[in-house]
Write a structure and sequence with these properties.
Layout lengths: L6 E3 L9 H6 L15 E3 L8 H9 L9 E8 L16 E2 L7 E4 L2 H13 L5 E7 L5 H15 L1 H6 E11 L2 E10 L3 H16 L1 H4 L5 H14 L11 H6 L6 H14 L4 E8 L2 E10 L2 E5 L16 E3 L1 H4 L3 E3 L10
């Protein structure tokens, strides 16, 4: 008989300065049934990273199942980046008609690589992985898979809205069913990318001197077209360009990231806090030096803009921003 259990930890999305969103954050008590099994439902909010899995794990030590286990996990939107980017050799794929693609893996690194591939291929929404190997501490290892996927690609990390996984296992094998949802469709992302390509080829940007001057033109392009979504409902670059309400910092950061990359600059999306509130902004590498940019806070609206957060060093940014410095390159100047 397969043992079963349920664990849950939940939190709501939270954005820059929103007290309403902050009040929504909460966790439900952990509960467990069954003697030898665990079902983990782990919710990490829009910007809360991997704090909740640790809490769930502390409350639910894994017991080896004599005949099998089952479980589930969930992570909403953004997650903490894993410094080690997962890599894996290609694994065999088995066709499953009218169902999610079935993929085979022998390591957790392979699982991360396979699910990343499904997500990159038109924002795939389903996949099943047949894993052959030790399943000790399986739920914690699947959480690390989730983090490894995010470490590979800032854009994909922040366009992802939610990932859930359900698993059944024995001591040396597991079947893991993944489900993903996104803030944009693949068609919407391509529309934004096409707009970014057109923008950086326009005279207003292309004729600027490479480096600071061109980066400023890109920065102002975003602020001229975007406005902050006070409803906190929209999180995509597509909504920032075409939606009626605008977008939150996540959309600003995604748009700036895509523009900078389209123009040939190295760019990162930074997850951290601004004045105590969870927030996203960017980094760009100019002349070999990384620097911070925060288009959301430099865009007060009403057709105005400022440059208080344009090309700032770590020291300057740290005055009212905080982030995990080990996850991002050091910024100078």
């Amino acid at each position: 008989m397969i043992g079963r259990g349920i664990g849950e930890a939940q939190s709501a999305a939270m954005e820059d300065g929103s007290r309403k969103a902050r009040r929504r954050i909460g966790r439900k008590p952990f509960r467990r049934t069954g003697r030898r099994a665990l079902t983990a439902i782990l919710s990490a909010s829009l910007l809360l990273g991997a704090a909740l899995p640790a809490a769930a794990a502390a409350n639910a030590p894994i017991a080896k199942a004599a005949k099998g286990r089952s479980g589930a996990g969930k992570a909403d939107a953004a997650y903490a980046a894993d410094p080690a980017v997962a890599t894996a050799r290609p694994a065999a794929a088995v066709a499953a008609p009218d169902a999610a693609p079935v993929l085979e893996a022998a390591t957790f690194e392979e699982i991360a690589e396979l699910i990343y591939g499904v997500m990159k291929d038109g924002y795939g929404e389903r996949a099943t992985v047949l894993y052959r190997g030790s399943t000790e501490s399986l739920d914690q290892k699947l959480q690390q898979v989730f983090k490894a996927i995010g470490a590979k690609d800032d854009d994909l990390r922040f366009v992802l809205k939610k990932m859930t996984w359900n698993w059944t296992s024995t001591a040396y094998s597991a079947t893991i069913d993944y489900r993903m949802s996104y803030w944009e469709t693949s068609e919407q992302t391509e529309a934004v990318n096409e707009e970014a390509r057109k923008a950086v080829q326009s005279p207003a940007i292309a004729r600027k001197k490479e480096g600071r001057e061109q980066t400023l033109a890109i920065y102002e392009w975003v602020m001229d077209r975007f406005r902050y979504d006070r409803t906190l409902e929209e999180h995509s670059a597509y909504a920032g360009l075409y939606g009626k309400n605008g977008t939150v910092c996540q959309g600003y950061a995604l748009m700036l990231h895509r523009l900078l990359q389209a123009a040939g600059y190295e760019s990162r999306i930074v997850y951290g806090k601004s004045k105590g509130d969870l927030h996203l902004w960017n980094m760009v590498r100019l002349d070999g030096v990384w620097q911070h940019l925060d288009a959301t806070l430099d865009d007060p609206g009403a057709g105005k803009s400022k440059l208080a957060y344009f090309l700032r060093s770590d020291a300057a940014m740290a005055a009212d921003h905080s982030w995990d410095r080990s996850a991002y390159p050091a910024a100078g100047r």
